[in-house]
């Protein structure tokens, strides 16, 4: 997938969907592009959290404007190819977390370049010689590779994470270190760097329980790379969603919101060395050891959700449970078969909820409504789930207009179209939003949609159906009274 | 039902008299018919409610897959469909070898609903098509019976019977998406139109008959039944001296248009003029021309001698035509009777000559209890109804008699043909029962005999009011001497209430029986099995879909799956993978090849599988769960079919012990133990049990202490309850060894040197 076509909208933007306008920023730069050295990283601490199946990196960096003029654009470089796997990049001011206005864009560079950049636009230009502490977080998808790539069915799984000991930077970094947070102490391999690289001349990395520290390092030029890798025990599935399609259908008449999610999951874990053995699986079921197989999916739904279904291409999957009470509604699904490394599973789940939990009428405006639904839900797994692509479609009632939406999830595209179903004459307004590289930690993020639903649109369908039936009756009455017999009329009047 | 005769003084009486009365009765009848249709649909929904909206069994999966292809690729592509995902590597010209009526019907419904923007899934249309059409069948039965009997209740009773009788439900429950789903409606409706055509003698009705006959041809191979029954009816009528211009018009219209319509189906093509099965229709068409000509001549020349001469000539011509037919058949111009047809006359034929037909359970001769099971009380009302047809033998009653006789025979020969018997049983039984009801349900006492006697010979033209007695009287012809005495009616309320009560009880029992049979015998999807947990809750055993879905998700899109042909359609439909053989069974040799691969030793099977590019082998094994429909139980058919082609290599006798037993335990013959099927079924099964305790719950036998070993296959997937086991065919060994050698090497066994040594030992001399 070419990611150059992306256009990232602002983190908190209120885009008008009616006009099909996408908030775009296209900066196509030549491959020789190097960010101007306006900044210097005074101090940089990078945290890589490896507790889930996708690493989460947090770069806390103190930047200083070394130029004479105030500067606003800070660049963050990524190796080509890896930028397509980076998701959920967010920037905050470490000192003032409430401060908003950081705009993040992917800079388009021509395809021959080896480095690509995220451009971070600060809310206000940073004056010369001033410092600012940025906190940059992002997730790297598909970053862990199982090694060995094939394991036995009950073996431990080790995954390899390869990264640079030096944080990615387009600027000179005076001081930095990288901290790793591992899920376990079982780390058979970790690249050891020579002590002379280290600023303090100590053993590199420093190990302390489950956390490893590379660095600190002294001043390094822009783009410095020191590849290191760690291999650690991660006997959990690496759940990877190739695609998640989500439909949210709002019905004012039915006072109902219908959710449906279609998942295409694959387990990126180590594949089975020998084939699947049911005997081993049945035996291991008694003591339930950690396994790289995905056996169960849990969907915590909104309280009050009802009528769940779990189906796949060939029908209902009977191995699901739905526990719903006043405090929670949990949908527990068991796939038809345990999903081992390299195996796929695609399925569809859906449920209904009361409309009033999600919809409010805007005060003052009688026909304007605000809908607040999660952008996506999906399973909530301890080991995390990553999605390559999430497509959420909001189907509003027929005749809804003036649609506006906002979300904190980075979107790549949004379109509005008409969706005709259930005897619609005109079609329902549907809003389709696409996000790339999303992880399940974002499943709480909301999508707020504002729309106008005129009173007259509400009565369109009953009137149309009434009219249609009347027409059918009228036509059949007329046809019934036609005399099409060839011969003479037998009835004498 | 027939309680329309009420007190004339009651305030409601105006609704039952005159023009209003006619309308009221029409409305009531409509409501009753709608209720019957609703009951017919509802009684078929057990499986949907208990399980889910799912396609059942085997053949429906193919129809479902074909329907999906039709709606995806359009009609013309469907017509030209060459399916390379079945019968690998041969493929199947699917578009030209199926009856498209079913798929086109559901495709049309699908597109109609899409036009109304109703987003109904094609699966739901397919699942609910059979129940929906059974509602229509009930209506068609009503029409047909109303043509047969004058009684107002006969049609409604017949519709009611048709709606819920298990004989029809067996093939039309929700999910049973097979040709029969729409074919029975078409059968009954075509017969209704035919009867109407014969009665009215109009080209329109004849044309409609032809139209629906064409639809029927496009829907089901059983159309041959109509093709032979209508000519037989015409022939019998001619022989009875009942030739009439009405018969001439309707038959010729039907034959000409119907044959043309039937030839539009690629699978039928030129069969109507080339195969013996269709020759009777052609022959009668010729005969009816001759008879018509004779009648014309007779009208011109009223001479008895001439007529006799002509009759003789007709016989001669008939003889010549028949001789010519035989000659053409022998010379090969006209295809001889097909094997399936022979098995209709000789039930032992298939078992000897075409084991593949005999291996299908629905082709077995019917057991006697099946008649009662499927038809309950109708089976004893049926002869009474047929007898009553004799009492009043008009053209249409002749039809009932012929239909009854023929289909009774066929139903006795083949379980599956119970389906064609059911409609006529319903019609005849309803005629009999309506007679009883009409006689005994009249509340008012009959008038004095003296008054009645004058009316007894009157026609049914009483002035619109429902005088049951009049109708009854008119239903009894004067020609029969036993009915010469005027029909009086029943005076005693006791006998009235007793009989009415008994009939009501029977009817209620019938409903009870039908519901019970439908719920217990005919509502299992067979893809999904249900069991009960100790606490009484339902537990679904879903191994088939588990394994099929695993195949669908985790194997290459074009991975070939070898299995016994029973599962071919399901693999195609649910796993979406190419198969070697499937339920179409058009190529016996290919099936026998699979049979041979299953029943031979690995050394023999492996080359066969390599040649057919098999990636996975799927077997069904019920030993753990006690599921008796598994492959080991079907194994002898594989052996028999393979033996039919390779009598030297596969021998059924070798699979039986010296005492002639079919065993899987320690006593099993070496051939059995070395067969691929045995090995695949029991591979690794031992390790589930403590040493030496392995138990096969279907065969009820203890298995050998050491399980079989596989060298050319490896276990790829086994479903939760072991019902489906999938094996992957190993690639060739990298070092060019056989897999047995490679396996032995891997275990560290010493290579056998026996084969290397040749000749006697020679002392080495330096």
TrEMBL record, chain A:
Its membrane topology: Single-pass type I membrane protein
Ranges that cross the membrane: 463-482
Subcellular compartments: Endoplasmic reticulum membrane
Pathway: Protein modification; protein glycosylation
Keywords, comma-separated and alphabetical: Endoplasmic reticulum, Membrane, Signal, Transmembrane, Transmembrane helix
Gene Ontology CC: one annotated term: oligosaccharyltransferase complex
Signal peptide: 1-17
Entry annotated with the keyword Membrane: yes
GO aspect biological process, one term: protein N-linked glycosylation via asparagine
One Pfam match: Ribophorin_I
Disordered: region residues: 186-210
Organism superkingdom: Eukaryota
Similarity remark: Belongs to the OST1 family.
Known partners and oligomeric status: Component of the oligosaccharyltransferase (OST) complex.
The protein's role, per its UniProt record: Subunit of the oligosaccharyl transferase (OST) complex that catalyzes the initial transfer of a defined glycan (Glc(3)Man(9)GlcNAc(2) in eukaryotes) from the lipid carrier dolichol-pyrophosphate to an asparagine residue within an Asn-X-Ser/Thr consensus motif in nascent polypeptide chains, the first step in protein N-glycosylation. N-glycosylation occurs cotranslationally and the complex associates with the Sec61 complex at the channel-forming translocon complex that mediates protein translocation across the endoplasmic reticulum (ER). All subunits are required for a maximal enzyme activity.
Protein name: Dolichyl-diphosphooligosaccharide--protein glycosyltransferase subunit 1
Classification lineage: Eukaryota, Fungi, Dikarya, Ascomycota, Pezizomycotina
Encoding gene, per UniProt annotation: OST1
Automatic annotation (TrEMBL), chain B:
Main localization category: endoplasmic reticulum
Source taxon at top rank: Eukaryota
Biased composition range(s): Basic residues: 748-766
Region (Disordered): 740-766
EC number annotated for this UniProt entry: 2.4.99.18
Gene3D superfamilies in alphabetical order: 3.40.50.12610
Pathway membership: Protein modification; protein glycosylation
One Pfam family per UniProt: STT3-PglB_core
Gene Ontology CC, one term: oligosaccharyltransferase complex
Keywords, in A-Z order: Endoplasmic reticulum, Glycoprotein, Glycosyltransferase, Magnesium, Manganese, Membrane, Metal-binding, Transferase, Transmembrane, Transmembrane helix
Parts of the chain that traverse the membrane: 27-49, 97-113, 125-145, 151-169, 181-200, 220-240, 252-273, 279-297, 309-335, 370-390, 397-419
Cellular localisation: Endoplasmic reticulum membrane
GO BP, sorted A to Z: post-translational protein modification; protein N-linked glycosylation via asparagine
Cofactor(s) named in the record: Mn(2+); Mg(2+)
InterPro entries on file: Oligo_trans_STT3, STT3-PglB_core, STT3_N
GO molecular function, one term: dolichyl-diphosphooligosaccharide-protein glycotransferase activity
Domain STT3/PglB/AglB core: 560-610
Function: Catalytic subunit of the oligosaccharyl transferase (OST) complex that catalyzes the initial transfer of a defined glycan (Glc(3)Man(9)GlcNAc(2) in eukaryotes) from the lipid carrier dolichol-pyrophosphate to an asparagine residue within an Asn-X-Ser/Thr consensus motif in nascent polypeptide chains, the first step in protein N-glycosylation. N-glycosylation occurs cotranslationally and the complex associates with the Sec61 complex at the channel-forming translocon complex that mediates protein translocation across the endoplasmic reticulum (ER).
Similarity annotation: Belongs to the STT3 family.
Protein name from the UniProt record: Dolichyl-diphosphooligosaccharide--protein glycosyltransferase subunit STT3
């Amino acid at each position: 997938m070419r990611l150059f076509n992306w256009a990232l909208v602002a983190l908190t933007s209120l885009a008008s969907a009616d006009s099909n306008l996408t908030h775009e920023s296209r900066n196509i730069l030549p491959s020789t592009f190097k960010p101007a050295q306006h900044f210097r990283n005074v101090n940089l601490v990078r945290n890589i959290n490896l507790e889930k199946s996708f690493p989460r990196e947090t770069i806390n960096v103190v930047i200083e404007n070394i130029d004479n003029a105030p500067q606003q654009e800070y660049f963050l470089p990524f190796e080509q190819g890896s930028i397509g796997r980076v998701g959920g990049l967010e920037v905050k001011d470490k000192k003032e977390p409430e401060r908003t206005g950081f705009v993040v864009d992917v800079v388009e560079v021509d395809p021959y370049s080896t480095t690509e950049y995220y451009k971070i636009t600060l809310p206000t230009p940073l004056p010369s010689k001033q410092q600012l502490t940025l906190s940059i977080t992002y997730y790297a998808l598909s970053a862990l590779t199982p090694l060995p790539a094939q394991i036995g069915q009950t073996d431990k799984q080790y995954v390899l994470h390869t990264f640079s000991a030096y944080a990615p930077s387009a600027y000179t970094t005076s001081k930095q270190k990288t901290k790793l947070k591992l899920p376990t102490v079982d780390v058979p391999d970790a690249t050891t760097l020579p002590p002379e690289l280290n600023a303090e001349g100590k053993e590199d990395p420093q190990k302390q329980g489950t956390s490893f520290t590379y660095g600190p390092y002294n001043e390094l030029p822009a783009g410095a790379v020191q590849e290191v890798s760690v291999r650690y025990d991660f006997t959990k599935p690496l759940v990877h969603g190739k695609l998640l399609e989500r439909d949210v259908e709002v019905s004012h008449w039915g006072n109902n919101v219908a959710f449906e999610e279609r998942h295409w999951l694959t387990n990126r874990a180590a594949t089975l060395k020998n084939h699947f053995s049911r005997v081993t699986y049945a035996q291991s079921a008694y003591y339930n050891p950690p396994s790289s197989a995905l056996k169960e999916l849990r969907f915590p739904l909104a309280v009050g959700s009802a009528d769940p279904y779990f189906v796949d291409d060939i029908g209902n999957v009977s191995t699901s449970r739905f526990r719903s009470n006043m405090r929670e509604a949990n949908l527990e699904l068991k796939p038809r078969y345990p999903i081992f490394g390299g195996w796929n599973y695609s399925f569809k789940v859906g449920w209904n909820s009361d409309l009033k939990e999600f919809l409010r009428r805007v005060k003052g405006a009688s026909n304007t409504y605000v809908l607040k639904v999660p952008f996506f839900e999906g399973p909530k797994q301890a080991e995390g789930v990553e999605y390559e692509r999430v497509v959420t479609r909001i189907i509003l009632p027929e005749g809804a207009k003036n649609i506006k939406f906002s979300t904190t999830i980075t979107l790549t595209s949004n379109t509005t179209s008409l969706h005709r179903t259930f005897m619609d004459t005109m079609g329902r307004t549907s809003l389709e939003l696409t996000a790339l590289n999303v992880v399940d930690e974002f499943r709480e993020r909301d999508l707020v949609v504002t729309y106008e639903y005129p009173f007259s649109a509400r009565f369109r369908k009953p009137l149309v159906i009434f009219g249609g039936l009347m027409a059918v009756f009228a036509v059949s009455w007329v046809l019934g009274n036609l005399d099409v017999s060839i011969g003479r009329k037998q009835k004498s009047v | 039902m027939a309680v329309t005769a009420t007190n004339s003084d009651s305030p409601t009486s105006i609704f039952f008299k005159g023009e209003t009365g006619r309308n009221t009765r029409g409305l009531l009848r409509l409501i009753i018919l709608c209720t019957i249709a609703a009951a017919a649909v509802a009684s078929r929904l057990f499986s949907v409610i208990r399980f889910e909206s799912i396609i059942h069994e085997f053949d429906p999966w193919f129809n479902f897959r074909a329907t999906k292809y039709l709606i995806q690729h359009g009609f013309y592509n469907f017509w030209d469909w060459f399916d390379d995902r079945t019968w690998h590597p041969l493929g199947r010209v699917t578009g030209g070898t199926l009856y498209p009526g079913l798929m086109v019907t559901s495709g049309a419904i699908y597109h109609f609903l899409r036009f109304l923007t109703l987003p109904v899934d094609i699966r739901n249309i397919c699942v609910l098509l059979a129940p929906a059409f059974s509602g229509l069948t009930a209506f068609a039965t009503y029409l047909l019976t109303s043509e047969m009997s004058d009684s107002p209740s006969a049609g409604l009773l017949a519709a009611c019977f048709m709606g819920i009788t298990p004989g029809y439900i067996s093939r039309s429950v929700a999910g049973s998406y097979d040709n029969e789903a729409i074919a029975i409606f078409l059968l009954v409706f075509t017969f209704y139109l035919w009867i109407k055509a014969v009665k009215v003698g109009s080209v329109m009705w004849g044309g409609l008959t032809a139209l629906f006959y064409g639809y029927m041809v496009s829907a089901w191979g059983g159309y041959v039944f109509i093709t032979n029954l209508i000519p037989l009816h015409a022939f019998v009528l001619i022989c009875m001296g009942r030739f009439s211009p009405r018969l001439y018009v309707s038959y010729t219209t039907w034959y000409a248009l119907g044959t043309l319509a039937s030839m539009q189906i690629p699978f039928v093509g030129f069969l109507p003029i080339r195969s013996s099965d269709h020759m009777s229709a052609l022959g009668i068409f010729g005969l009816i021309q001759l008879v018509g000509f004779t009648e014309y001549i007779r009208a011109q020349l009223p001479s008895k001698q001439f007529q006799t001469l002509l009759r003789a000539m007709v016989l001669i011509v008939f003889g010549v035509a028949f001789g010519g037919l035989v000659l053409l058949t022998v010379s090969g111009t006209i295809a001889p009777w097909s094997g399936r047809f022979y098995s209709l006359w000789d039930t032992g034929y298939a078992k000897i000559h075409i084991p593949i037909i005999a291996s299908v359970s629905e082709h077995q001769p019917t057991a006697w209890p099946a008649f009662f099971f499927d038809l309950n009380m109708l089976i004893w009302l049926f002869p009474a109804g047929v007898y009553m047809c004799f009492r009043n033998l008009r053209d249409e009653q002749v039809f009932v008699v012929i239909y009854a006789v023929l289909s009774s025979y066929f139903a006795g020969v083949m379980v599956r043909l119970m389906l064609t018997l059911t409609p006529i049983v319903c019609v005849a039984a309803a005629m009999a029962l309506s007679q009883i009801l009409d006689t005994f349900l009249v509340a008012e006492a009959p008038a004095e005999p003296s008054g009645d006697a004058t009316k007894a010979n009157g026609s049914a033209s009483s002035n619109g009011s429902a005088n049951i007695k009049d109708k009854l009287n008119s239903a009894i012809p004067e020609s029969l001497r036993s009915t010469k005495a005027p029909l009086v009616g029943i005076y005693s309320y006791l006998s009235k209430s007793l009989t009415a009560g008994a009939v009501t009880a029977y009817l209620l029992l019938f409903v009870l029986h039908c519901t019970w049979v439908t719920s217990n015998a005919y509502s299992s999807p067979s893809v999904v099995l249900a069991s009960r947990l100790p606490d009484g809750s339902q537990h679904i055993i879903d191994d088939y879909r588990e394994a099929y879905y695993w195949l669908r998700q985790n194997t290459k899109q074009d991975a070939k799956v070898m299995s016994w042909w029973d599962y071919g359609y399901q693999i195609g439909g649910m796993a979406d993978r190419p198969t070697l053989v499937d339920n179409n069974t058009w190529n016996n040799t290919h099936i026998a090849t699979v049979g041979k691969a299953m029943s031979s030793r690995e050394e023999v099977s492996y080359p066969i599988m390599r040649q057919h590019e098999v990636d996975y082998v799927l077997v069904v094994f019920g030993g753990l769960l006690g599921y008796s429909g598994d492959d080991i139980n079907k194994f002898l058919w594989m052996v028999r079919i393979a033996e039919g082609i390779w009598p030297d290599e596969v021998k059924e006798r070798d699979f039986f012990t010296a005492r002639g037993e079919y065993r899987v335990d320690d006593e099993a013959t070496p051939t059995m133990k070395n067969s691929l099927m045995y090995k695949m079924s029991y591979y690794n099964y031992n390790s589930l049990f403590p040493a030496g305790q392995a138990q096969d719950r279907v065969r009820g036998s203890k298995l050998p202490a050491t399980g079989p070993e596989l060298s050319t296959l490896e276990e790829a997937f086994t479903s939760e309850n072991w019902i489906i086991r999938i094996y992957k065919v190993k690639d060739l060994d990298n070092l060019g060894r056989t897999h047995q050698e490679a396996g032995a090497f891997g275990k560290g066994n010493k290579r056998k040197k026996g084969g290397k040594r040749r000749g006697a030992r020679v002392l080495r001399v330096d």
